[in-house]
Amino acid sequence: MSATHESFISKATVAGLDPQNTLDGATLLWRLGDWFTAGAAAEYRYRAGTEAMKQSFEIGSLVRKLTTDSVIDEDTRQRAKKHGMDIDGVYAVAAIPASGNDVEKIIRDVKSSGSTARAQALVAQIDLRVVAIVARTPTVTVSEVPLAIGPFAPLMHLVRSARVCEQVWKLARKEQSGVHSMESYAWKLAVPDSTDINEYLIHRYISPLSPATAAGRDILETLRTWLRASFSVRQTSKELNVHENTVRYRLQKFSDLTGGFEHGIDELFGLRWALEAYDSGFATNPDSK
Fold it and tell me: Taking the complete model, does pTM exceed 0.85, yes or no?
């Protein structure tokens, strides 16, 4: 545009063009230059946005493929390599809530902290969560949102990691923050999908206490604290700020209403499971008998 402008001024001078006409012509040329520049910038932004959207869809499709298909074909392998993944390395599937959070920041953080020098993480937003295939456990976002992660496995066998991640997710999404894995929950992972067992144990240990009443809530809170305190009546009384005899009374009341503690460890585990199912909301009608 500068060369065109200089050429116009030169030709206008040689032709003896009126100064005002020369100025008007030069102004039109600069306006034309501004219009062209603005149009070029808009086209660049459009193309960049289109390419980013195309890449986002491509990554999302690849994440779905690797986490749901137990048979990975050569085309998928090449697509993974294209995005910097080590097809011979080990990866884990992770999930982070996207709703109400800065999704772009989460994606950047997880990709950065979930990658290694040799193996890039693959991160995409799928529905209301960010799903990632990571080469190492992400660390940047753990202080801000809960992160569920499955076990590490070869890239071509990520279906199990995705399945475990989904189980962890059902419990971790209710947490405030931190990394949550199979090790975090152990047997608790079986609770969400064990409807019949949940109903039975809640009917067995929770419903007889009338949990909607004040007395029932007191017994449940005492049981939770007592289990957490490794069955210490003294510690339970301190945490609840009640007399030790009150703790003993409530434990005895539980035993009277449910017949609990008759079979030792089995009863304790059944109670622990029932509390987990009840507190996590995996019950249809906990107050029924």
Answer: no
